[in-house]
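Appendix B. Extra example for self-study. Work through it before the problem class; the solution is given directly after the inputs so you can check yourself.
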Amino acid sequence: MANVTVIGAQWGDEGKGKLVDWLSNRADVVVRFQGGHNAGHTLVVGEQVYKLSLLPSGVVQGKLSVIGNGVVVDPWHLLSEIEKIGGQGIEIGPDLLVLADNACLILPLHRDLDQAREAAALNKIGTTGRGIGPAYEDKVGRRAIRVGDLADREALEVKIDRLLAHHTPLRRGLGLPEYDGEALLSELEALAPRILPFAKPAWLLVNEIVKSGKRVLFEGAQGALLDVDHGTYPYVTSSNTVAGQAAAGSGLGPRGAGFVLGIVKAYTTRVGEGPFPTELFDEVGQHLGTVGKEFGTVTGRSRRCGWFDAALVRQSVALNGITGIALTKLDILDGLPSLKICTGYRLGDQVFTYLPAGLKAQRSLEPIYEEMEGWAETTHGARSFRDLPANAVKYVRRIEELIGAQVALLSTSPQRDDTILMRDPFQD
Ligand code: IMP
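Solution. Structure tokens for the complete assembly:
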């Protein structure tokens, strides 16, 4: 198998960035296929910490990086991220970065709408406030401005008119000031010469790369339980985050996904609102948050923390067609005397082995736990499976059994090299 698709198997923040960075060594090109700058990937390489939210993690290794058509792109943010990473010594030009010419843009009016809705308490989802949802709404509403439109002033004018015909009444309803179409046109025209050099038919490039026998690494953002179809709707993001989207969001057919590597945190976290059956409100939850440094990369919000939910990840294994998992942050459990794993849920006299779709049900589920003994030793920085304490090995093996997938990689610290390889996804 030549390609690898990396996706988050829980609610995001599983540590995809580090794994993608580690795997990009073995890949020729890294492709993002959904989401936008709502994602937050932290890469630690020696003393340097890179925080990416829109750029594919491959840029750090100097690998050809593609922002596919499935991504919504805030062009101002893109330029500022390129500048920031440039300041850390990584020059990003059109030879390193390709932007799909058919990707849709996030505009300031999307951010306004996102934030105004969040402020209206009734609709609160706990979004990142970056305009992701409204931009996807305009995409499927067929009124979005796409990257390639920046090259065509006439098309831009017509499109801005159509866009404002939709947004003006919405803004009025939310008490936002009228948006100035002329000003938007000038801003986009000013931006065009800096964005267009990156714009290419990315689908063609990705297909040619695959045909030539090179290896593609697809980098997912967020997590399967935030998927707009399969997640805890409506408390989800606005894109398909599951591995199947790698095909549609890049223009490579469904056979291209290759080895699907699900990134799984050894416990569970979530940012924003929405159901979370194994959430902990006690000192163990606080311990996980503090030791695990569970604060959002994008918004700085504290993440909610809870026990490992095997029922949830088992569902994710199915939804994504996961071939193997990368287990992260096992070391955060070091020192806990006992650990709980959720194996299913109770709702009244019913037992569920999966997360039922209804919001009311999801909110009322009572987790069914099994308990295991913890370990006192440290697993931090372990470089071999043999170095792990016996109880940590038992915990990992039990997770594998319950979710129906095996560990291919184990990450034992944020550092690139603290990674135990059990099965090489690129060799599978
Ligand atoms: P949006 O993607 O900004 O619309 O936010 C929708 C939901 O997805 C919120 O609960 C966010 O906290 C969550 N979300 C978006 N991006 C990420 C991410 O990269 N990691 C974790 N949660 C995310």
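Self-check: The domain at 104-195 is CATH 1.10.300.10 (Adenylosuccinate Synthetase, subunit A; domain 2). If your reasoning did not lead you there, revisit section 3.
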